[in-house]
Amino acid sequence: MLTRELEETLSFAVDEAVKHKHEFVTLEHLLFALLEDAAAREILFNCGAQIEELARALQEYFETQLEKIPADVKTMPELTSTFQSTISYAVLQAEGSGQPAVDGGNILAALYQAEQSYAVYLLLQQGVSRLDILNYISHGISKVDEGDMLPDFDMDDDENPFQSAPRKKPLESFCVELVAKAEAGEIDPIVGRTPEIERTIQVLCRRKKNNPLYVGEPGVGKTALAEGLALKISEGNVPEVLQGAKVFALDMGAVLAGTRYRGDFEQRFKAIISELKEHENAILLSTRYTP
Which residues is 24 bridged to in the sheet? Predict the structure, then answer.
């Protein structure tokens, strides 16, 4: 069984062959389509691949190396035997590892069975080995820096698919900065929680054991206390040690979303902590926050 996203990816590979008037659908068409498959793209990025460069090289290969059928010939391209055997191998690999469905990661690993293909040559040229892919799928071992984030990549016909997109930073992706929201007037005044907020400030001003912990059922106002703290910081109504501090509310649901492989969550959390260290007087609220 294939995931829905992988089915769309395989269809995209065929469409790419049709668009370029190629007689066969090859592994190169498959790799090009995998660049838009979320699972495969994340794996390639974490294995050190330069996705935009891969796309450019494949496009050049399509235009200069593969023969085109005459424009007046109306025929659908055929899948090469290597293409079909790669899909079959990926299915066997997924079944052997107990996966309920085959996804882009399985296809990437299966590509390396065709050692002489140009697709594998491009991957190896960028230092992406089959072992790198299996290490990331099985153990979450990444070759990129913890603070780097996967760039957005969309091969829309109306846009340039090879234009480098800015990488979102972890704090932008998974956190909300409450002091900035308070300064923008997006947080209402907190009523009836003054003692708790004052006690929070006292704990934060300690040199040691300065991590306040809010305990309570959902909806009792734990996040409201953090918003009250952010309001006081934005107004300058805090001790000097907290002046200029930032309060980041971590959306744990967003961190967990899309973590398909072992190590994904740990990698994201390490990236968040790594960026937090770059901010002086950063305060992290680790609870689910809905803006």
Answer: 78
CA distance 291 to 288: 10
Architecture of the domain spanning 4-139: Orthogonal Bundle (1.10)
**What's the predicted TM-score (pTM) here?**
0.55
Q: Where in the chain is the domain with CATH 1.10.1780.10?
A: 4-139
Dihedral sign of CA atoms 54, 58, 60, 64 in order: positive
Q: How far is Cα 58 from Cα 28, in angstroms, rounded to an integer?
A: 7
Q: Class for domain 170-286, per CATH?
A: alpha beta
- Quick one: tokens of 48? 């050190």
User: Which has more pLDDT, 80 or 173?
Assistant: 80
Q: How much is the pLDDT for 117? A: 92
Kindly give the pairing relationship between strand 246-250 and strand 175-177: antiparallel
What distance in Å separates the CA atoms of residue 24 and residue 161, rounded to the nearest whole number? Answer: 23
Kindly state the average pLDDT of the residues 201-217.
89
Who contacts 198 (Cβ-Cβ below 8 Å, separation ≥6)? none
What does R_g of the chain's alpha carbons equal in angstroms?
A: 25
Q: What pLDDT is stored for residue 149 in this prediction? A: 53
Q: Where in the chain is the domain with CATH 3.40.50.300?
A: 170-286
Distance of alpha carbon 117 from alpha carbon 183, whole angstroms:
57
Residue carrying structure tokens 């997006």:
186
pLDDT at 163 exceeding the cut of 50: no
Closest Cα to residue 42, out of 118, 151, 123, 115?
A: 151
